Amino acid sequence: MLVVDQLREQTNLKYQIIPLTTTGDAQVNRSLTAIGGDGVFVKELFAALQDGRADVAVHSLKDLPTSLPPELCAGSVPEREDARDVLISRENEYTSIDALPREALVGTSSLRRAAQLRLRRPDLHIVPLRGNVDTRLSKVLKGECTAAVLALAGLRRVDLLQNVGGGSPLSHDVMVPAVGQGALFVQCRSGDEVVRRLVATIDHAPSALATRMERAFLAVLGGGCVAPVGAHVEMSGDTWNLVAIVAATDGTKALRRSGSGSTKDAAEAVRTVEAIASEMLGAGAAELIAQARQRDNVNT
Question: Which residue out of 5, 55, 63, 265 is catalytically annotated?
Answer without folding.
Answer: 63
